[in-house]
Amino acid sequence: MVFIWIPKTAGTSVFEVLRHHYGMKKLKTIDTCFSFPQRGAVTFGHMSYNDLLATGVVHEGFSKRAYKFSFVRCPYARAVSLFNYLKQTGALDADLCFHAFLDDVHRARPAVGMYNVAGLSQTNPQVDWLIGADGAFVTDEIFKLEDMGEFCRALEARFGIAPEVERKNVSEKQVLMDEIAEDREVLEKIEEIYKRDFDILGYDRISRP
Questions:
Q1: Where are the alpha helices (DSSP H) in the chain?
Q2: In this predicted model, what pLDDT tens digit does every residue of 104-140 receive, in sequence order?
Q3: Domain containing 127: what range?
Q4: pLDDT, tens only, 52-80
Q5: Who's near 95: CB < 8 A, 6+ residues apart?
Q6: Pick from 206, 182, 208: which is nearest to 194 by CA?
């Protein structure tokens, strides 16, 4: 089993369930990744699964056998959550506003790669973790945070366990969804940065006059 962990998509909550029920390991540094024995339940944190395959850290044989899944989230809500989280952790300047944050994300985020975090790498579009070199999804299933019940039902059907997922790692609110929903400029920035998430993952854009 491989959990491809996209930042700010309930990953901590999901991982705790998987760790408890399936003994999932979290390997999110280069050193720990190279010790992966090609078996068992694992997440590589926010590292690029494509790069892990390309470099041989994850063997093709294991990847073909493993059940691979991920979670995604409404791009508007995820952008807000990323800002709140990065503010809370001190990764952003205390006086940085949401508009300026989105500008930085648009022009200065590093690509997803062989690291858990590098600068604003956590803010990349969700599909950058999900789409392989061949243009297809690297996952067998993609669940939406907005329907956690589907994930629980899928685990019960596949493994005979119906877990309860509790919310963890919830960020303090620096900016709220209700605030951005009335800000046309913010909405347009989010829609530009995360265009592929809206289009490929099937999330609706907020309508406005």
A1: 11-22, 30-33, 49-54, 60-65, 75-89, 98-108, 127-130, 148-159, 177-180, 184-193, 195-201
A2: 999 999 999 999 999 999 999 999 999 998 999 999 9
A3: 2-201
A4: 999 999 999 999 999 999 999 999 999 99
A5: none
A6: 206
Q: Is residue 207 part of a domain?
A: no
Residue with tokens 């369930």: 17
Q: Within the chain, how many helices (H) and strands (E) appear?
A: 11, 5
Percent of the chain, pLDDT > 70? 94
> How many residues comprise the chain?
209
32 domain-assigned: yes
Radius of gyration of the chain (CA): 17
Percentage of the chain lying above the pLDDT 90 cut: 77
Cα–Cα distance measured from residue 161 to residue 173, given in angstroms and rounded to the nearest whole number: 34
Decide if 208 is inside a domain. Answer: no
Is 143:165 a contact under the CB 8 Å cutoff?
Answer: no
Place of tokens 């506003």: 97
CATH code at 64? 3.40.50
Q: Is residue 209 part of a domain?
A: no
Q: Model pTM?
A: 0.91
**What is the number of alpha carbons within 13 Å of residue 106 lying toward its C-beta?**
14
